[in-house]
Amino acid sequence: MKFAWLCSHESYQPEVLVEQAVLAEQVGFDAVLGSDHFHPWVDQGSASGFVWSWFGAVAARTDLELATSVTCPLFHYHPGMIAQAAATVDRLSGGKFILGVGTGENINEGPLGFEFTGYADRISRMGEALEIMHRLFAGEKLDFAGQHYTLDKAKLYSPPLRPVPIWMAAGGPKSAEFAGTHADGLITSVKDPDETLERVIVPFRHAMGRRRQKGHIMATRWTVLADHADDAWRALDTMRGLRAPGRLEAVDPMVLRQRADEMDRDEILGKYTIVSGIDALIDAYAPLVTEVGADYVAVQIASTDPERTLRLVGSELLPELRKLAD
Fold this sequence. Notes:
It contains twelve helices and eleven strands. It is of the alpha/beta class. The strands form two sheets. Strands 1-2-3-4-7-8-9-11 form an eight-stranded parallel β-barrel, surrounded by seven helices. Strands 5-6 form a two-stranded antiparallel sheet. Strand 8, helix 7 and strand 9 (216-225) form a beta-alpha-beta unit. Helix 2 packs parallel to helix 3.
């Protein structure tokens, strides 16, 4: 079992996150994840760096595995362009890149003039995108005429060092089965382990079983490390729009901030796992190791002092989770 740290590009500027990734390696993480959005979740105090440039800087400074968590290769990104970007990062990282994909949100598409369509269209696009990327990673010179994408003799002339694994994010049974049918692995956020096992992991494993493959699972969990509610609210300053109504469809981070600010603060805080010390933090992540049985456990912690949090996680949380994994 490996452990990953999420570098939140919505919360910190990219140069800050490079140093955060370096520290993550120093404290014992195996991998770092980078989120990928064009706009952040609120408009004040936020950031929105280009994750693909950032990966190059991290690859030059660390020996970590790298992964998107997640990117959307459907609209403002053509799947062929994402295959090229992923192949380059794979080469720069020494063959240690995982491409995490998802069906996206309108904060990526609407600002650039792309229509953000309904789930049926997006999952149809994802099927074509996964086929395109897998075939390009395999070295094919690709002609492709699909419903959504067309490629004419497309080829990666800086190919990955090995076919880059593609893991798809899923939060329900339909997407989980789709991931098990078309992708190489699953990324899922866990709050209730039993619910995640029933609704996401079991459908994914059944679909992978039909392909006679096992597939990899990355289990993630958002937590907030805070001593009290005011501290938790400050820690979530740049992320509170993530729980606002209409988050998938919104374009303007100002609108999401306004909607979040109109909500009862306790309602937003109640959507997160808030912990006040290392014992509670261990309790929050232990089920991802002992019950979910993930191949990778991704630690996503909001706090007012990320450097102190990373050092605490490295000295106290990771050793306990590795003991449980053994």
